[in-house]
Amino acid sequence: MASDLLNLPWQQQIVIAAGCASYMTAYLGGRKHHTTVEVVFITLVFSLVSTASLAITNQWPPIASGAAALVVPLIVGLAWRKWGRRFFAAFMRFGDFSWSNDDPSALATLVANVRFPVTQIAIELDDGTWLRCDDTSKFNDAPYAPCLLGPDGDVALYLTHEDRPDGASNEVTTVRDEYYGDRLTYVPASRIRRIAIRHGKL
C-alpha cells in the first residue's frame, strides 16, 4: 500500500498528504469517535482544497505550487477548527435545523474546547475526596497549563487543595518549585466520580 502511494505522481501524493494532515489538524483530540468512512470523506474534502490550490498555481514553479497545495488546506483546517465548526453549529441552531454539536459526549466537547479557558477545576474521587485547583491562572506559564482533560475521562491538574470525606481540608503549597518545576497530579478515569469546571472568557 505504502509503495503504491509512493509510485503516484507527486501532485497526487501532495493532495493525499495535505488532506490527511489537514484532517488531523482540524480534529486534533476529537478523532476517536470518527468512523473509517468519516475519516476518508473528511480527508477527501481537505484534499479537494489542495487540488484546487494546485489548479490555481499550476503556472508556478513546482516547489512553490506544491508548498501552496500543502499549506492552504492546513490553513483551512485550522480555520475550521477555530471558527468554522462554531459558526456552523450556530447557524444550525439559529435555523432550528439541529441543536446537536455532533460530539459523542459532553466530555468530548470540553476536551475540544479552545474558546473558553478553564479557570477552576475540581474532581471528586470514588472515595469522596475532592481534588481542586482554585485558580488555574496561577499556572498559565506552567508546561501543561491550565490542566489536561483526557478523551477517556482522565484528568491531570495542578493540585492546590484537597478536601477529604471526613471534612479535613489541606492546601498544597508545594505545587510550584523554582528548582524542580511545577507538579502535575494525574487522576485516572477509573477513580473519578465527578468533574466540576469553571470557564472564563477570552
Present the secondary structure layout.
Elements: H1 2-6, H2 10-26, H3 36-56, H4 62-94, H5 106-112, E1 118-125, E2 130-133, E3 147-149, E4 155-157, E5 161-163, E6 169-171, E7 176-177, E8 181-182, E9 185-187, E10 192-199
Antiparallel strand pairs: 1-2, 1-10, 2-5, 3-4, 4-9, 5-6, 7-8
List keywords for this structure.
about 200 residues, alpha+beta, 5 helices
Q: Report on the biggest sheet.
A: 5 strands, antiparallel
Order of strands, main sheet, comes to 6-5-2-1-10
Structural class label: alpha+beta
What is the end-to-end distance?
A: 45 Å
The amount of helix comes to 40-55%
What sort of overall outline do the alpha carbons produce when their principal axes are compared? elongated
Secondary-structure element string: HHHHHEEEEEEEEEE
Unreliable residue runs: none
Number of domains: 2
> What fraction of residues sit in β-strands?
15-25%
What integer is the average pLDDT? 89
From the alpha-carbon coordinates, what is the Rg to the nearest angstrom?
22 Å
Number of strands: 10
Number of helices, counting only DSSP H or I runs of 4 residues or more: 5
Please, could you describe this protein's structure?
This protein is α+β, with helices and mostly antiparallel strands. It has two domains: about 1-95; about 115-200, SH3 type barrels (Roll), CATH 2.30.30. It contains five helices and ten strands; from the N terminus they run αααααββββββββββ. It has helices at about 1-5, 10-25, 35-55, 60-95, 105-110; strands spanning about 120-125, 130-135, 145-150, 155, 160-165, 170, 175, 180, 185, 190-200. The strands form three sheets. The protein has a five-stranded antiparallel beta sheet, with no helix packed on it. A three-stranded antiparallel beta sheet has the order 3-4-9. β1 and β2 (about 130-135) form a beta hairpin. α2 (about 10-25) runs parallel beside α4 and α3 (about 35-55) crosses α4 (about 60-95).
